[in-house]
Amino acid sequence: LIRLLAPTTAEERVAEVVRGGAGFLYYISRTGVTGARSELRSELAAEVDRIRERVGLPVAVGFGISSPEQAREVAGVADGVVVGSALIQTLDAEGVEGAARFVASLRSAMDELGADTVFHCAALPGVWGPRERYERANVAATHHVIEACRAAGVPRLVAVTPPKALDGNAALAAALLIADVDEVIAVGGAQ
After folding, report:
1. Which residues, other chains included, contact 8 with Cβ-Cβ below 8 Å and sequence gap of 6+?
2. Per-residue 3-state assignment (H helix, E strand, C coil) for 111-143
3. pLDDT in tens, 60-113
4. Residue 28 in contact with residue 5, Cβ under 8 Å?
5. Which pLDDT does position 189 carry in this prediction?
6. Residue closest to 4 by CA, chosen among 87, 16, 144, 73
7. Of 22, 92, 93, 97, which one's alpha carbon is 20 to 30 angstroms from that of 144?
8. Residue 165 forms beta bridges with which residues?
9. Edge-to-edge, what's the strand order for the sheet holding 80-82?
10. Residues 15, 54: contact at Cβ < 8 Å?
């Protein structure tokens, strides 16, 4: 189970929150909702260092990372970079080919620092509305993001999903199977 920590997590709660976690720790880089931002918080590197002192897992950072420059900056302080909303927006605006170019630009920026994995987490934030909207944003988009990552040469794909997301959701499960994802892991435990 992937555990999440946020800038608002009290230091004395870190050990409790990450207990039982595996794979990596997902550090939410800022407060608020997910989505692309123009700059990262100046405290990020120091926060990741403090987390590393207390946790024996790799630290992946996400929320608000929207450019190759930001991905490179995060890769310089963390073990993994999570890009979600910016990738989904690119996919929506430019299709799979545009998303593949975007992923390739992220990979290129991170390769300069020796990063070797791109983690992708994305879902439609807020109320999903009609089932068709959910299917397009969370099922079809997942398949297309995986396709774009493969086209960009990403060597390993890890699908990160809430523990119950696949329960009764044959369409999402099928999208992950068809796309030949390397690993599916659960995420949870925010705060």
Report:
1. 31, 191
2. HCCCCCCEEECCCCCCCCCCHHHHHHHHHHHHH
3. 898 888 899 999 999 999 988 888 888 888 888 888 888 888 988 988 888 877
4. yes
5. 43
6. 16
7. 22
8. none
9. 118-119, 80-82, 59-62, 25-28, 2-5, 183-188, 158-161
10. yes
CA dist., res. 51 & res. 61, Å (int): 11
Q: Which residue has the tokens 């946790």?
A: 55
Q: The pTM is what? A: 0.72
Residue among 82, 81, 79 nearest 59 (CA)? 79
Burial 89-107 (b: 16+ CB within 10 A, else e): bbbeeeebeebbebbbbbb
CA atoms of 38 and 88, how far apart (whole Å): 16
The residue type at 50 = R
Angstrom distance (rounded) from CA 75 to CA 77: 5
Could you tell me if residue 11 is left (phi over 0), alpha (psi between -120 and 50 degrees) or otherwise beta? alpha
Residue found under tokens 């997942």: 142
